[in-house]
Design goal:
The protein has 318 residues and is of the alpha+beta class. It has ten helices and 14 strands. The structure holds pyridoxal-5'-phosphate (PLP). The site of pyridoxal-5'-phosphate has 13 residues, from helix 8 and strand 12.
């Protein structure tokens, strides 16, 4: 059977990590690599991170590696040490250099799965599963998203705001490979004339997008700095690295920072709504269901400027 690859995939570089290759080993991502019994595939039992590389520099590198470790802890999944992940990414970048240059913008996806059922890849628990980094030039759709204004629909995520604490086995707030629900919600949004989704709990708390964090901006009195607010982690959202970096920059600029609980009404009452994610950056929302929201280029550029400072990220309560 003929195989078809999109241009951007052809230029992808894969780096595997295993006990024999703790500094990584290049593989061809266009060839089959995984066993069909890998638990990452058959159960979605694994974790990942998607990072943005600009001009050869991984943005928010520490925050992503810290969140990978956090997700691994929540799933009780052994993963290679941070130095191995960094070596794998560096090897991938080196491969681009050898091929003629690192593209200006890359997406780097780190993936760790529980490996093949009953056949640990190594006796060393840090290497018992399956691990790789995939480097891909930022695809056209990602670049288009960076420049777009978003229409979003509010959708029920089907759990209440207490469940994350009450039922830790649901792994809310971990970045697991089980994203079928997230992708289904995006298809639902598109089928109903929207670009993306903002989830809320059944008891009416704002959560996050299927692959983004929600930011609300409120302007205050004349001459005062604005306020930027995001839902609390305790409601069951992923600690966003983009949100964290924006908040760090905003704090330095004297903005007021706020953390939910937030209701959909607070979103409609906000002056501006944004979605934030690593490759997309900060993008303005112009419509939430049937309600138009104001978009302000100056505020958008201010938030993007905070992100560009790439300051260390921290989240309250962590
Ligand atoms: N929330 C979810 C569920 C996500 O999957 C993502 C990223 O894809 C985010 C939030 C945003 O996280 P980050 O800013 O670290 O990319």
């Amino acid at each position: 059977m003929a195989e078809h690859f999109r241009e951007d995939n052809v230029a992808a570089v894969g780096v595997r990590l295993d006990a024999e290759h703790p500094d990584g080993m290049i593989f061809d991502p266009h060839q089959p690599q995984l066993r069909v019994t890998d638990l990452g595939v058959v159960r979605g039992d694994g974790i990942f991170e998607t990072m943005h590389v600009l001009d050869g520099h991984v943005r928010k590198y520490d925050a992503h590696l810290e969140r990978l470790r956090r997700s691994a802890r929540m799933l009780e999944l052994g993963i290679p040490p941070e130095s191995a992940w960094r070596a794998a990414v560096e090897l991938g970048l080196e491969e681009y250099r050898a091929r003629g240059g690192v593209p200006e913008e890359l997406m780097v996806r780190l993936t760790a799965t529980r490996g093949v059922d009953g056949e640990p890849a190594s006796d060393d628990p840090e290497y018992a599963g399956t691990y790789w980094a995939l480097l891909t030039p930022a695809p056209d759709w990602a670049k288009a998203d960076q420049a777009k204004q978003f229409s979003v629909t509010l959708l029920d995520r089907g759990f209440d705001a207490d469940v994350a604490e009450r039922a830790p086995w649901l792994l809310l707030g971990a970045k697991t490979l089980s994203y079928a629900i997230n992708m289904a919600s995006k298809r639902w949004a598109e089928a109903h004339g929207h670009d993306d989704v903002i989830f809320h709990t059944t008891d009416g708390q704002l959560l996050e997008g299927p692959n983004s964090t929600v930011l609300l901006v409120n302007r205050r009195g004349e001459g005062e700095t604005p306020q930027v607010v995001t839902p609390v982690l305790e409601a069951g959202v992923l600690p966003g690295t983009t949100q964290g970096a924006v908040f760090a920059g905003a704090a330095r600029a004297g903005w007021d920072l706020g953390y939910g609980p937030l209701t959909p009404q607070q979103l409609f009452d906000a002056d501006h709504v944004f979605l934030a994610a690593s490759v997309r950056g900060v993008v303005p929302v112009w419509r939430v269901d049937e309600t138009e929201m104001a978009v302000d280029d100056e505020i958008t550029e201010a938030l993007r400027g905070f992100l560009a400072e790439d300051l260390p990220v921290s989240h309250p309560g962590e």
